[in-house]
């Protein structure tokens, strides 16, 4: 006969948040996962960027978790989950797992697509094959679309007549893992003058509108008010470059300084909110001194399916670098009007067993470089000036290309030799 398991005095832990609130018998308290950074959930409810995982039956399951140490092995035959006061923070896909040592785990029960019709609701679930485990862990792999997950209360019943457990969770190890962005600093070749779209926004874990605590789009945008540094028809004509494998690679760039040297085996690059600003061609490069760089991966002709979307890329030969730089050589803009580039998020996966890097980027000094014309002396015409001659150096080459002034930007003169002056 099922018997309630008393959780008073049991040890509770969690990936984040106050684990004790889920098993305290008080419906007014809740376990809430972290509300900041890459450890939040995406708009589809998935745990797409976080680093917390559990090894279940030799597989790696990513998601926030809450755990109870029962002190002795118990055979759980049913359990309940109560959500909190906001539906979007309710767990939708989750797994109850058991372990004899809290290190490796086996599934007890798995649920997908759970529907919550109201807040502060308790749902009951039955375990088909009860087995005795000392440690229980609830892993939430997807919620209802909130950027964190909340669980008010967990309860368990046990089948006291269950036989001793003969199963042992298989051990497993992995040679890759998502890179936590704690301590990572981000810089860039330039930033949109509005000031909100800083390099840090590309590694803050937030991609969608109103996901973060400040409720705005979070993406990095390169300078958008300087004609010299925009992309025209998707092509970059500016002066910013990076020396990669002894070559000058021109394009705005986003750079990360990692807390230690990391060998990237996969990375995900997300776009922003304007299709014309999508990164289409780019180079991911690595360095240990930020002066000279080696190619990690090169992509061309990339097409994003929509705004605020993510694409994953695989690195063929991972090498450890302390600095990473994405150099965007072309954008999706198909019109002559100048556009900046936007990057919503950069996520990394590292190869843990990569050897120590014994190579260094080749030292090179360029002989030629494009001249940055903003702020140069105004050109003077030998004839009467029709339009301000400084427009020759403003970086805008097309009609209506200047978003600041909103008019054609070219220099012209008129021939005064045939003009007649009359008096009235």
Give an account of the 3D structure:
With 424 residues, this protein is an all-beta fold. It folds into 3 domains: 2-172, Galactose-binding domain-like (Jelly Rolls, Sandwich), CATH 2.60.120.260; 178-351, Jelly Rolls (Sandwich); 373-424, no CATH class. Helix content is 0%, strand content 39%. The chain is built from no helices and 28 strands. Strands 1, 2, 6, 7, 8, 9, 10 and 12 form an 8-stranded antiparallel sheet that branches. A hairpin with a 2-residue loop joins β4 and β5 (59-62). Mean pLDDT is 84; it is low at 209-214, 375-394 and 398-424.
Succession of helices and strands: EEEEEEEEEEEEEEEEEEEEEEEEEEEE
**Global Rg:** 29 Å
Figure out the total of helices: 0
Give helix % range.
under 10%
Please identify the top-level CATH class of the largest domain: Mainly Beta
N-end to C-end Cα span: 114 Å
Classification by helices and strands: mainly beta
- Fourth-tier CATH superfamily name of the largest domain: Galactose-binding domain-like
**Sheet with the most strands, sense and barrel status:** 8 strands, antiparallel
Dominant shape = elongated
Uncertain regions spanning at least 5 consecutive residues:
209-214, 375-394, 398-424
CATH topology descriptor of the largest domain? Jelly Rolls
Number of E-state strands? 28
Average pLDDT metric: 84
CATH architecture name of the largest domain: Sandwich
Strand content: 35-45%
Counted up, domains total 3
């Amino acid at each position: 006969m099922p018997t309630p398991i008393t959780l008073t005095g049991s040890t509770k832990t969690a990936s984040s948040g106050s684990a004790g609130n889920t098993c305290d018998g008080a419906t007014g308290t809740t376990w809430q996962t972290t509300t900041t950074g890459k450890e939040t959930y995406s708009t589809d409810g998935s745990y797409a960027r976080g680093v917390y995982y559990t090894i279940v039956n030799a597989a790696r399951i990513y998601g926030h978790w809450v755990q109870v140490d029962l002190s002795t092995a118990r055979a759980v035959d049913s359990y309940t989950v109560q959500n909190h006061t906001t539906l979007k923070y309710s767990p939708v896909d989750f797994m109850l797992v058991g372990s004899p040592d809290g290190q490796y785990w086996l599934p007890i029960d798995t649920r997908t697509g759970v529907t919550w019709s109201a807040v502060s609701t308790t749902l009951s679930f039955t375990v088909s094959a009860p087995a005795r485990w000392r440690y229980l862990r609830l892993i939430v792999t997807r919620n209802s679309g909130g950027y964190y997950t909340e669980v008010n209360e967990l309860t368990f019943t046990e089948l006291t007549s269950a036989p001793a457990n003969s199963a042992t969770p298989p051990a497993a190890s992995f040679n890759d893992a998502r890179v936590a962005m704690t301590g990572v600093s981000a810089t860039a070749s330039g930033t949109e003058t509005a000031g909100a779209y800083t390099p840090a926004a590309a590694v803050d874990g937030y991609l969608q509108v109103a996901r973060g605590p400040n409720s705005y789009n979070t993406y990095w945008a390169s300078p958008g008010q300087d004609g010299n540094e925009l992309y025209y028809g998707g092509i970059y004509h500016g002066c910013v470059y990076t020396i990669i494998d002894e070559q000058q690679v021109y394009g705005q760039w986003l750079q990360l300084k990692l807390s230690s040297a990391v060998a990237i085996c996969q990375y995900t690059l997300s776009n922003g909110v304007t299709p014309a600003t999508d990164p289409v061609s780019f180079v991911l490069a690595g360095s240990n001194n930020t002066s000279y760089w080696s190619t990690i991966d090169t992509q061309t002709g990339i097409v994003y399916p929509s705004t605020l979307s993510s694409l994953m890329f695989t690195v063929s030969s991972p090498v450890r670098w302390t600095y990473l730089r994405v150099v965007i050589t072309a954008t999706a803009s198909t019109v002559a009007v100048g556009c900046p580039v936007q990057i919503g998020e950069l996520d990394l996966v590292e190869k843990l067993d990569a050897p120590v890097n014994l190579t260094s980027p080749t030292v090179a000094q360029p002989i030629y470089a494009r001249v940055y014309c903003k702020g140069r002396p105004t050109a003077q015409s030998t004839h009467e000036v029709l339009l301000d001659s400084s427009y020759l150096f403003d970086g805008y080459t097309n009609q209506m290309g200047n978003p600041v002034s909103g008019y054609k930007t070219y220099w012209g003169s008129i021939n005064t030799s045939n003009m007649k002056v009359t008096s009235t």
